[in-house]
Amino acid sequence: MKHIFLMLAALAGGTAAAAPVVTVAVTTAMNPDTLTALCRASETLTGVITMRLVVRGVPVDAGFDVKRHFALDAAGQSANRTAVRAGFARLSDFSACGIAIDPLFFRRYGIQRAPVFVLHDAAPATADASCGKTEAKAVVVRGNVTAGFALHELRRQLIDAGETYAGWLPVINRVLEENLP
Question: I want to staple 136 with a disulfide (CB 3.0 to 4.6 A). Which of 8, 13, 124, 177 is the partner?
Answer without folding.
Answer: 124
